[in-house]
Amino acid sequence: MTSSSRIAVRELPVFPLPDVVLFPSRPLPLHIFEFRYRIMMNTILESDRRFGVLMVDPVKGTIANVGCCAEIIHYQRLPDDRMKMLTLGQQRFRVLEYVREKPYRVALVEWIEDQAPTKDLRPLASEVEQLLRDVVRLSAKLTEQNIELPEDVPDLPTELSYWVASNLYGVASEQQSLLEMRDTVARLKRESEILTSTRNHLAARTVLKDTFNQKL
């Protein structure tokens, strides 16, 4: 093991959550009520305020091997020691082994990052952003609501890929796959496929709606 890889390995308390995938730079609000996790959070608050979030597949009962470190940004204590807290995603990690299981899991983890890009990612990122705008525009037209793309959409390709992945709803397994990718190009391309499919679906529904309204 090299000195650099030793630096990248550390023990980290982990918080398994059903169908929740956290991404770097994305917020995650939490309500802590289970006794063992109240113990964990109280311990974390006395150190560096960081813990790992791992997705649990509620059907299979399995815990993902790749997750994202969360940092506690703000917290509020409630009656009977429950807590509400806001956390923010930091680095991604891979679990090497569990060093403790009780009262909560502590894992030995290594940090992981995307590979350095070999080409300009901005054209692909621009394509994904345009697809986002198309999806929002069609959703607004279909629902007859004022829906706009948030102002906090990142400009940088890697950060944009995390933002898009975190805003996919009801597809935790797909989000987990995107989290585990270590190639920004591959992540953006997969998101482009997902958004293209969504755009086409919304466009078809919009045409049907317009046709129906014209016949009334």
Describe this entry's structure for a reader:
With 216 residues, this protein is of the alpha+beta class. It has six helices and seven strands, in the order H-E-E-H-E-E-E-E-E-H-H-H-H. Helix 3 packs parallel to helix 4, helix 3 packs parallel to helix 6 and helix 4 packs across helix 6. The radius of gyration is 20 Å and the shape is globular.
C-alpha termini separation: 72 Å
Query: Main sheet, how many strands, which sense, barrel?
Result: 5 strands, mixed, barrel
Question: What is Rg?
Answer: 20 Å
Structural class: alpha+beta
- The largest sheet has its strands arranged as 1-3-5-6-7
Shape: globular
Number of DSSP strand runs: 7
State the helix count.
6
What low-confidence regions span 5 or more consecutive residues with pLDDT below 50? Answer: 1-6
Q: Approximately how much beta-strand content do the residues carry?
A: 25-35%
Order of helices and strands: HEEHEEEEEHHHH
As a percent range, the share of helical residues equals: 40-55%
Mean pLDDT: 91
Key traits:
disordered N terminus; single chain; 5-stranded mixed barrel; alpha+beta; 216 residues
